[in-house]
Amino acid sequence: ETVGVGQAEVDIANMAHTTIVVEAPGLGDEIQAIKAGVLEIADIFAVNKADREGINRTVMALEMMLSGGMRAVVHHGKVMQAGTAAETPAWRPPIVKTIALRSDGVSDLLAAIEQHRAYLLREGQWQRRETERLRHVLLNVVQEEIMDLFFQRVSEEQFQHAVAQLLARRIDPYTAAEKLIGAGLWPG
Q1: Highest mean pLDDT (candidates 31-35, 51-55, 96-100, 154-158)
Q2: DSSP type of residue 26
Q3: 102 with 110: CB under 8 angstroms?
């Protein structure tokens, strides 16, 4: 679970096989939903608090986005545009109304998750997403290990000196990095 649409949500979408974006009516989410980032990560939309006023506006805003009524959008790397079925991916994120406090719509949400899983397996997308997920995990681990190695070899004073040089505009970030890495601190 994350809040808002930003890098954390994209990271979640890269790690999960099925990403559910939860919207709620009456909270200005009609405007939030129009952000392209939501469409890029959502495999399923759950509109929670479906017993509240404004549910139909929220669902309509999502439907308009999904039908391309607002603009062309990208969903997991595929362009969705109005009017051309060839450009629309086979999976169209469903919109499921729920009332979590009463468990209303939860079975529909579970059914949508299962349908998405079946789609991924049938279309060979499960393996592609798993490959991308593992690639992402491996790159994160490599980055963490490199940073650990870097800070084992570069003192805090050396690093702060480089930052001070950047602040004084005496050096650019690339040159600073080259100096910190290439100062004989790395093997090979």
Answers
A1: 96-100
A2: T
A3: no
pLDDT at site 85: 46
Label the pairing between strands 95-97 and 78-80: unpaired
What tokens were used for 175? 């040159």
CA distances from 157 to 131, 148, 151, 168 (A): 40, 16, 11, 16
DSSP states of 59-123 as a string?
HHHHHHHHTTSS--EEETTEEE-TT-GGGS-S----EEE-BGGGTBTHHHHHHHHHHHHHHHHHT
Place of tokens 């939903």: 33
Query: What pLDDT is stored for residue 83 in this prediction?
Result: 47
Query: Dihedrals φ, ψ of 20, to 5°?
Result: -110, 125
For residues 132, 137, 138, 144, the Cα torsion angle rounded to the nearest 10 degrees is 150
Residue 137 has which token pair? 């995990």
Q: Give the least confident one: 36-50, 71-85, 162-176.
A: 71-85
